[in-house]
Amino acid sequence: MTLTLESITRKPGSRCCGEGEQQQLSSESAQQFSDALLTLAHPIRIQILTMLAGSPGQVCVCDLEAALPVKQPTVSHHLKLLRDAGLIDCERHGLFAYYFVNRAALAELRSRILEPLDHLA
C-alpha cells in the first residue's frame, strides 16, 4: 500500500491547522490569572486560609502562630499578603489581632481562577 501526500498551497500568513476561531486569553487576563494563583501559591497561606475558613468566628493571631510550623515574622508576612489581596481582614482587641476570611473576596478569587481553567477543559 502506497500513500501519496498532496502538497497544499496556502496563502502566506494563513494557518496550516484549520481556520477555526481559536479562543485566546488576553495578556491582561493571563496576568490576573497568574496573580490569583500566586496569592495561593504557598502552603502557609493555604493553611492560614483553611484555618480561618473553618472557624465560625475570628481567630486570634496567637492561635495562628501556635498552629503553624513557622516563626511569628513569617506568619505576619503571609497574613499581610493575604490582607493585601483582600482575602482576609482583622480587628484589634487589646494587644491581639483577630483574623477572619473575607468570603466575598475569596469567592471572587475562586471564580477568577476557575474561569480560565474551565476554558482549558
Order of helix and strand elements from N to C terminus: HHEHHEEH
Q: Tell me, what's the shape? A: elongated
Uncertain segments: none
**Structural class based on helices, strands and sheet pairing:** mainly alpha
Residue share in helices?
Answer: 40-55%
- Sheet having the most strands: 3 strands, antiparallel
Strand order of the largest sheet: 1-3-2
Percent range for β-strand residues = 5-15%
Alpha-carbon Rg, integer: 24 Å
The overall strand count is 3
- What count of helical segments does DSSP give? 5
Assembly state here?
single chain
Q: How many angstroms does the end-to-end distance come to?
A: 39 Å
Tell me, rounded to a whole number, the average pLDDT.
89
List the defining traits of the structure above.
mainly alpha; 3-stranded antiparallel sheet; elongated; 5 helices; 121 residues
Describe the structure.
The model has no long low-confidence stretch (mean pLDDT 89). The chain has 121 residues and is mainly α. Strands 1-3-2 form a 3-stranded antiparallel sheet. The two termini are 39 Å apart. Helix 1 crosses helix 5. It has helices at residues 27-40, 43-54, 61-67, 72-84, 103-120, and strands spanning 59-60, 88-93, 96-101. The chain is 53% helix and 12% strand. Strand 2 (88-93) and strand 3 form a beta hairpin.
